[in-house]
Fold this sequence. Notes:
Layout: H1 10-19, H2 30-36, E1 43-47, H3 53-60, E2 64-69, H4 72-84, E3 91-95, E4 107-113, H5 123-132, E5 134-145, H6 163-170, E6 177-190, E7 196-208
Parallel strand pairs: 1-2, 1-4, 2-3, 4-5
Antiparallel strand pairs: 5-7, 6-7
Amino acid sequence: MTTHQDHEDPTRFWERFYANRDRWSGKPNPALVDEVDALAPGTALDLGCGEGADAIWLAAKGWQVTAVDISAHAIERATEHAWDADLGDAIRWRRHDLSQTFPDGSFDLVSACYLQSPVELPRERVLRDAAAAVAPGGRLVIVAHSAAPTWAEAGKHPWMPTADETLASLELDDELWTLETKREITRPATSPTGEEGTRADIALRLRRD
Length: 209
């Protein structure tokens, strides 16, 4: 289904989103924590970092983090949160429109949590770029919505790929990659109007051999 948002400039959309946002839990995504907590820290790239909760958690665990978002508002707030947590020196904040530019370098961990957008985003291409940025022996972690929330009106949300569809879109060489995790997650969630329901998510972790 096409909405007026589909044709909106992505930078303008996300700047407005964060400018109008006044809530920040400060909590990392639980699925990311589950996938990364036991890993030895190294270098990490956090794509779509938002206001920085995942990046700050990674830095607290000892990772040297490069955190990327399209929104300057988000980056500014994330930077403030990191300094408040005494972790400002452990995180490099970078503004990228991932449809146009991608961070240089390779990383022991590349994380893409809920890298989904109601406005234009070449998500499959960005995730392939994410895989290409994983260093040998490193991991790619993808966490994403796989279905609309239970309270949503039919047809009002964009198509959300399953775990298998996401894996296929990465176009990875099976001889170079090992799938370590493929999970389907159902979690409680609350609508903007306070309606209780659930969301279906996926979590993938792949190791580059």
